[in-house]
TrEMBL record, chain A:
Coiled-coil ranges per UniProt: none
Active site: K76 (charge relay system), S152 (charge relay system), S176 (acyl-ester intermediate)
Enzyme class: ligase
Record's subunit section: Heterotrimer of A, B and C subunits.
Single biological process term from Gene Ontology: translation
Protein name, entry field: Glutamyl-tRNA(Gln) amidotransferase subunit A
Known EC number: 6.3.5.7
Record organism: Solimonas marina
Family the UniProt entry places it in: Belongs to the amidase family. GatA subfamily.
Domain spans labelled Amidase: 22-464
Domain of life, source organism: Bacteria
Keywords for the protein's UniProt record, in alphabetical order: ATP-binding, Ligase, Nucleotide-binding, Protein biosynthesis
Gene: gatA
One Pfam family it belongs to: Amidase
InterPro entries associated with the record: Amidase, Amidase_dom, AS_sf, GatA
Automatic annotation (TrEMBL), chain B:
Top-level taxon of the source organism: Bacteria
Enzyme class, UniProt record, top EC level: ligase
Signal peptide start and end residues: none
Reaction(s) this enzyme catalyzes, per UniProt: L-aspartyl-tRNA(Asn) + L-glutamine + ATP + H2O = L-asparaginyl-tRNA(Asn) + L-glutamate + ADP + phosphate + 2 H(+); L-glutamyl-tRNA(Gln) + L-glutamine + ATP + H2O = L-glutaminyl-tRNA(Gln) + L-glutamate + ADP + phosphate + H(+)
Gene label: gatB
Record text on subunit structure and interactions: Heterotrimer of A, B and C subunits.
Membership in a protein family: Belongs to the GatB/GatE family. GatB subfamily.
UniProt name for this protein: Aspartyl/glutamyl-tRNA(Asn/Gln) amidotransferase subunit B
Pfam families in UniProt: GatB_N, GatB_Yqey
Length: 485, 486
């Protein structure tokens, strides 16, 4: 059952080949048996999942079930879930039981009737590219347990790659959906900024954060993203615009589709093996009728430094609410208010989170704001204009998702800048707010390689169809790590 | 003024925090009512829970625009919310959502009558800006041993912070400006103006300089002076303190000071050195607010008649002296009361004004009551004035009727009836009384007739006494003159 697609699961439930309870029990058993090896879940909500499954079975027996009713899903532990610990993988929120549901939790579970298996591990407050900053320990890559799954949505991708969930939610601030999807051979999509509500998603960098999906196929991702998307009056940055049908266009021909290859994405720093696989994928798409050309995003090299001003600045502000006063970790034995703040935050936040809070505080400080934050905002506009220009000539942009395949656990532990450069190809889409996704396009030494597609605003349907066409022509997405067959 | 105004010039700028009278908070649906049990009006957004997001209250925006129009200010086509960071337990997010570089209202002004009444000496005080922001909660330090309580009911209440130019030159001008501003926001219906409950709070920036000096002196900011009287006292104290420091060779330190109502003094709270770096930046959770010309016109259509216009209309329509019009338009509720009295009594407008200003306001003032709490409503007062107009009672008797009405003894007609206060207008009855008085007082009559005119008053008094004041005074005067002259 854990290798079936969302469509097959939906059909199977309707044809009564299996019930939602059986399906849910199957995944819970697999989590029990295998998650010890990869640590992809922080909290498994077995009891609640079975209750939801029973409710789904009842709903399926009546009329009015959603296409996703009864299908299990894993939630990244960044989304607030009523009555369930929502930790953001931080000691700070280890004791935090969310008193409300995020809008996407409402949409997926209450509205669509999906079953929540549990809350997935991640980098602490989504800050990291290897899932090594989690308070609950590192997540292992199911393709090689010595390697990282990428981050920050490392738990989400590991769970799906290992067959411990059919699909999972994830979030992407600078590549946190696409880079882990790339490193674990999955399909991950970050939609247009404002397409999916951020209400109830614990903020890292508000102007960059966007929720999305990791799945085995573009088709699976399309079904779930469809159910998550839409305007939310509780999120002022959510966009009031009807959601396109993401599924209907899967199967459209891509003949004549103009795909641009940004030359900056194939420059030095890209591993040869990855380059070969990506170029092979380009050939495949060309074979399907796509028209390939080279384009330039001249400000690309500025993405990483720009991001590492904007994101920490917003993070330093967003994380100010974790002060030990109302909820979350509070240090013992404090005598003064200042001690309460310093010790609660010093104990509650891990090293990477503290580093980013300090960087962010610095760039917003009096006398530095103009030189850093304001300057970064200007560059951000240039990066957006690069894309705007590029999309005047092509429909989509294509390149690698990450510079290389999954690296070994601990490999970048002492070098934050090397770690930050992992996101060199993914960050620009967040800075510009455009949708982007990663699709498995082959393997190097048994490790998956990701192909990145970037589209103009609200081109999710187009992106998903190109990925779907590619997956119809290839079988990379069908391969699963042997240890978790 | 205790300082030498020929040597020293005072420069004052005021920052007023004005709570907007919306039902819900500026960025969430939680209620804003004052006085609820602690933390019963704190929803997820107010508490700053992880993952929550702010959504701007449209009414708060509308009120800010309304205020901007009332002070003839510019309304920003595009304004931006910014985060102002500092850690304090009653500030749940670790930042306050405020406006920094692009406020909603800028470059306005208020014309203030410095001598109060007749509007002859008017000074224009510039208003630099008015920006929207959220209020903080309250820290409660009493009643908890070794701990502090936090009440977040007030957190997230919409405020506008109104910043004046440093145009104010004395404590008296500061108070005149504040009173005018207070009157305006209450008139507009954007603030309840309750200073005790903190709906209208003032911080005063004060500096002094030698006359002729073009540069401003170093200023201090005195926080949260919560009554007009305290503002005056705090500023006066601060002026004298600063002059003393400078005259004894010292320098003023830029600092925040706190006014102590108990001692009437200000004391240092924190200096510039330990001031926070607020690290303002545009709030990425809120899009820039765009206000179109059509939005502004929509708000303009809801503007009530403002004090200036109302005063002018009262002078014109009711032929009132400027002073009367000024008093009667000082509060919307009072102006409404007065207009109702005129309408219902159908009496002369000036007569109505006299009764409202002298008797009603005097009485309320003595009882410490507001116009809303008046024991006599406008219809009741109109009923009494109508009885004066139709000569049922004299003006003098009316004073007694009014007192009885204030004491809650019923309507004017009931009281006139019960106490038999109907005026005696029957001239034969009055003549009979005059005859009797003349007969009883032959000596006085003799003296009057031999030229002691002053005794006329004696006879009037005797007649009024004999009729318990009910005789029509005009008739008494006329008839007495006839009879006394023989």
């Amino acid at each position: 059952m854990h290798t079936l697609s969302i469509k097959e699961l939906s059909d199977g439930l309707r044809a009564k080949k299996f019930s939602s309870r059986e399906l849910t029990e199957h995944f819970l058993k697999r989590i029990d048996a295998h998650d010890g090896q990869i640590n992809s879940y922080i909290t498994v909500t077995a009891e609640r999942a079975l209750k939801q499954a029973d409710a789904a079975d009842a709903r399926l027996a009546r009329d009015g079930a959603h296409l996703l009713t009864g299908i299990p899903l894993a939630q990244k532990d960044i989304f607030c879930t009523l009555g369930v610990r929502t930790s953001c993988a931080s000691k700070m929120l280890d004791s935090f039981i969310a008193p409300y549901d995020a809008t996407i939790v409402q949409k997926l579970h209450l509205d669509a009737g999906m079953v929540m298996l549990g809350k997935c591990n991640m980098d602490e407050f989504a800050m990291g590219s290897s899932n090594e900053t989690s308070h609950y320990g590192a997540v292992k890559n199911p393709w090689d347990l010595e390697r990282v799954p990428g981050g920050s949505s490392g738990g989400s991708v590991a769970a799906v790659a290992a067959g411990l969930a059919p699909v999972a939610t994830a979030t992407d601030t600078g590549g946190s959906i696409r880079q882990p999807a790339s490193l674990t051979g999955l399909t991950g999509i970050k939609p247009t900024y404002g397409r999916v509500s951020r209400f109830g998603m614990i903020a890292f960098a508000s102007s960059l954060d966007q929720a999305g999906v990791v799945a085995r196929t573009a088709e699976d991702a399309a079904y779930v993203l469809q159910a998550m998307s839409g305007f939310d009056p509780l999120d002022s940055t959510s966009i009031e615009r009807p959601v396109d049908d993401l599924v209907a266009g899967l199967g459209d021909s891509i003949k004549g589709l103009k795909i641009g290859l940004p030359k900056e994405y194939f420059a030095d720093g890209l591993a040869d093996g990855v380059r070969d696989k990506v170029m092979a994928a380009v050939k495949t798409l060309e074979g399907l009728g796509a028209v390939i050309s080279e384009v330039s995003l001249p400000n690309s090299p500025l993405s990483v430094p720009t991001y590492y001003v904007v994101a920490p600045a917003e993070a330093s502000s967003n994380l100010a609410r974790f002060d030990g006063v109302r909820y979350g970790h509070r240090a013992d034995g404090v005598k003064t208010l200042e001690q309460l703040y310093k010790r609660s935050r010093g104990e509650g936040f891990g090293a990477e989170v503290q580093r980013r809070i300090m960087v962010g505080t610095y760039v917003l400080s009096h006398g530095y704001y103009d030189a850093y934050y304001l300057q970064a905002q200007k560059v951000r506009k240039l990066i957006y204009e690069d894309f705007k220009r590029a999309f005047e000539g092509v429909d989509l942009l294509l390149g690698p998702t990450a510079t290389d395949v999954a690296f070994r656990l601990g490999a970048n532990a002492d070098d934050p800048v090397a770690m930050y450069l992992n996101d060199i190809y993914t960050i620009a889409a967040n800075l510009a707010g455009i949708p982007a996704m990663s699709v498995n396009c082959g393997f190097v030494d048994g490790l998956p390689v990701g192909l990145q597609l970037m589209g103009n605003f609200f081109s999710e349907a187009k992106l998903l169809n190109v990925a779907h066409q590619f997956q119809q022509a290839t079988d990379f997405h069908r391969q699963t790590p042997a240890a978790f067959a | 003024m205790a300082y030498d105004t020929t040597t020293w010039e005072v420069v004052i700028g005021l920052e007023v925090h004005c709570q907007l009278l919306t039902h819900s908070k500026i960025f969430s649906g939680a209620a804003t009512a004052y006085g609820a049990a602690p933390n019963t009006q704190a929803d997820g957004v107010t508490l700053g829970l992880p993952g929550v997001l702010p959504v701007l209250n449209k009414t708060a925006l509308e009120y800010a625009v309304k205020f901007g129009l009332a002070i003839d200010a510019k309304i920003a086509e595009r304004c931006v919310f910014a985060r102002k960071h500092y850690f304090y337990p009653d500030l749940p997010k670790g930042y306050q959502i405020s406006q920094y570089e692009l406020p909603i209202v800028y470059e306005g002004h208020l014309d203030v009558e410095l001598d109060g009444a007749d509007g002859k000496q008017v000074k224009r005080i510039g208003i630099t800006r008015a920006h929207m922001e959220e209020d903080a909660g309250k820290s409660l330090h009493e009643g908890y041993v070794g701990q502090s309580g936090i009440d977040l009911n007030r957190a997230g209440t919409p405020l506008i912070e109104i910043v004046s130019e440093p145009d104010i030159r004395s404590a008296a001008e500061a108070v005149a400006y504040l009173k005018k501003l207070h009157q305006l926001v209450v008139y507009l219906g954007v603030c309840d103006g309750n200073m005790q409950e903190g709906s209208f709070r003032c911080d005063a920036n004060v500096s002094v300089r030698k006359r002729g000096e073009t540069k401003f002196g170093t200023r201090t900011e005195t926080k949260n002076v919560n009554s007009f009287r305290y503002v005056e006292k705090a500023i006066e104290f601060e002026i004298e303190r600063q002059i003393d420091v400078i005259e004894s060779g010292g320098r003023i330190v830029q600092e925040t000071r706190l006014f102590d109502p108990g001692t009437g003094e200000t004391r240092s709270m924190r200096t510039k050195e330990d001031a926070n770096d607020y690290r303002y930046f545009p709030d990425p959770d809120l899009l820039p607010v765009v206000v179109t010309a059509a939005d502004i016109e929509r708000v303009r259509a809801t503007m009530p008649e403002l004090p200036e216009a109302k005063k002018a209309r009262f002078i014109e329509q009711y032929q009132l002296p400027a002073y009367d019009a000024w008093v009667l338009t000082s509060e919307q509720a009072l102006a409404d009361y007065y207009e109702q009295v005129v309408r219902e009594s159908k009496a002369e407008a000036k007569l109505c004004a006299n009764w409202v200003i002298t008797d009603l306001l005097g009485g309320l003032n003595k009882a410490g009551k507001s116009i809303a709490e008046s024991p006599i409503d406008a219809i009741q007062l109109a009923g009494m004035i109508a009885r004066i107009a139709d000569k049922t009672i004299s003006g003098k008797i009316a004073k007694d009727v009014f007192e009885a009405m204030m004491a809650g003894e019923g309507s004017a007609d009931d009281i006139i009836q019960a106490k038999g206060l109907v005026q005696i207008t029957d001239e034969s009855a009055i003549v009979a009384v005059i005859d009797e008085i003349m007969a009883k007082n032959p000596a006085q009559l003799e003296q009057f007739r031999s030229g002691k005119d002053k005794l006329f008053g004696f006879f009037v008094g005797q007649v009024m006494k004999a009729t318990q004041g009910k005789a029509n005074p005009d008739a008494v005067n006329r008839l007495l003159k006839e009879k006394l002259s023989g």
